[in-house]
Amino acid sequence: METSNLVSVLVLSYNNLKYMNDCLNSILEQNYPYIEIIISDDFSGDFNKDEIEKFIISNKKGNIVNYVINQNPSNLGIVKNLNNAISLATGNYFINLACDDVLFDGEVISSIVKCFSDSNYLVLAGFVAQYDEQLKGCLLTTPTWQYIKYTYGNPIDCYKKLCEGNFIPSPGMAYKRELINRYGMYDEEYRLLEDYPRWLYLTRNGCSIGFLQRNIVKYRTGGISSNRNVEIDKIYNDDLELVRKKEILPYLNSIKDVNYK
């Protein structure tokens, strides 16, 4: 299979499978000609591979050149699940997508590939439109303009700003295979927090982040990303503490003018 133009959309799911068809439809309606769908489920209780495969086969067009449906044998957490999805993918480009979110419109993937083709960026972010659970009304769009200049500016300046807190959206994050080859996979010392430590690591090591000035994803509030319990909160807070100890504090003396909070 020719993979230089292939885009692998990595769909991560865990107990949010009622939204799977919406997510898949947003991929199936894309006008880009070379798409691979990688679904990796993190041991959901109601996962049904046959139903998902039947839906893809019944609705796909010629631009879906491959699909993989995986379920982990146990719950591994977001970071390991994402790395599993990457390892199953064969594309030259990757797009991260949660099962409860959808690509904003049918031209998203084409826009992402064009941006990569017209630039030297290895990784891109874009606007994320936050919707209600039914995807009927847009509540707000992130990031705000005051942060965008840091995203595609000098990576060290971006790192400094990130030390104050994450402002770069994770939904729809797109990157080239070269990014993985150069900087490695996601750090599996983290369990749930894949985006914030990744942005800090990349920018601290001089990787510039491109920003595509268009809506990439409709983010569903009230889905799995928003519903947290005490156990999940503890894991999330432990990840944040590890970010502080691993990605920020060791570098404060060498990176000047960081307003760390």
Describe the structure in your own words.
With 261 residues, the chain is α/β, with parallel strands linked by helices. It has a single domain, classed as Spore Coat Polysaccharide Biosynthesis Protein SpsA, Chain A (Alpha-Beta Complex). The protein contains nine helices and nine strands. Strands 1, 2, 3, 4, 5, 6, 7, 8 and 9 form a nine-stranded mixed sheet that branches. Helix 1 links the parallel strand 1 and strand 2. Helix 1 runs parallel beside helix 2 and helix 6 packs antiparallel against helix 8. 41% of the residues are buried.
Instruction: Estimate the helix proportion, in percent.
Output: 25-40%
CATH architecture tag: Alpha-Beta Complex
Instruction: Note the beta-strand portion.
Output: 15-25%
Helix vs. strand class: alpha/beta
Report low-confidence residues grouped into runs of 5 or more.
Answer: none
Mean pLDDT: 94
Rg estimate, integer Å: 18 Å
Q: State the CATH class.
A: Alpha Beta
Q: If helices are DSSP runs of H or I spanning 4 or more residues, what is the number of helices?
A: 9
What is the 3D form? globular
Sequence-ordered SSE layout with sheet pairings:
Layout: E1 7-13, H1 20-28, E2 35-41, H2 49-59, E3 64-71, H3 78-88, E4 93-98, E5 102-103, H4 108-117, E6 123-131, E7 138-142, H5 145-151, H6 155-162, E8 174-176, H7 177-183, H8 195-204, E9 210-220, H9 230-248
Parallel strand pairs: 1-2, 1-4, 2-3, 6-9
Antiparallel strand pairs: 4-8, 5-9, 6-7, 6-8
Helix pairs in contact: 1-2, 6-8
